[in-house]
Amino acid sequence: MYTKPFLKWAGGKYRILNKILRELPAGARFVEPFAGSCAVYLNADFPKALICDLNTDLINLYRHLQQEGEDFIAYCASFFTPEHNTQSAYLALRDRLNASSGARERAALLLYVNRHAFNGLIRYNSRGAFNVPFGKYKKPYFPLQELRTFYRKTRSTPTEFIATDFRAVFARLKPGDVVYCDPPYAPLSQTSSFTAYAGNGFHAQDQHDLAALAKEAWQKGIQLVLSNHDTETTRSLYSAAILTCFAVQRFISCDGNKREAAPELLAVYG
Question: Residue 57: is its pLDDT beyond 50?
């Protein structure tokens, strides 16, 4: 039984942890340049960790939980009330998130909107404003135990959380690191790309840069595992790696009748 993340996440890795974890070798430090819901971090066993993401709200959520524990959990819980589970209340709190300059408030509101928004999406527009509509759930789940488990993980595994671009993360790598990358995926078609969770697109050049950095790090003795869609493009980008391909059922989609299996690729540099 694996530890579940407390966030909903498009493309989350909880259901394929068995495939990912068996590819991760032992190492001195676990590094994730694309934190997402932290499903792999929560279940990987390393002496310490460096967890990064371009989404500042996400990293601040993890930081405040790490630093405050139960106090921050109680603050987050204060937004999970019946009066906050209406469309008007949701839109008001979404506006509050977008207008706030307080890292702690934005962090707690990110958890609120994640659990109350349509399909649990985390998505920002080009101006950096969270823009997912209300989800209309009868009783949104407050992930109390999952939050506590995450907090305990940060205490048992010394972890540094940094909001930064993946290129800066690769510049920090050192011998003994083991890296897992779960970037925004290369599109399967011209209309299937979803890359706006941090307010910025993840484009073809980013895919190429990531692949080049992974190969360069591997040539310096660092071991890496990367996830992506299985396409001709990704197979070419990761041609120096050992590739494992399989189908994955997607559970976050606008149309529940179209949640078909997608071709997944693991690239192992080790």
Answer: yes
Angle (CA) 105 115 124, round 5°? 65
Which domains are present in the chain? 14-56+156-269 (3.40.50.150), 67-144 (1.10.1020.10)
Q: What is the dihedral of CA 136, 123, 60, 214, to 10 degrees?
A: 140
210 — pLDDT class (breaks 50, 70, 90): very high
| Single-letter residue type at 205 | Q
Minimal CA–CA distance to 247: which of 41, 15, 1, 36? 15
Q: Which two tokens stand for residue 256?
A: 């529940």
- All residues at 6 or more sequence positions from 92 whose CB lies less than 8 Å from its CB, including other chains: none
Spatial distance between the Cα atoms of 185 and 11, rounded to a whole number of angstroms: 9
Residue 52, classed as helix, strand or coil, is strand
Whether the model clears a pTM of 0.90, i.e. scores above it, the answer is yes
Residue pair 217/174 in contact by the 8 Å Cβ criterion = no
DSSP reduced 3-state for 165: coil
d(CA 21, CA 9): 19
What SS3 state is found at 6? coil
Report d(CA 227, CA 204) in Å as an integer. 15
> At residue 22, what is the residue type?
R
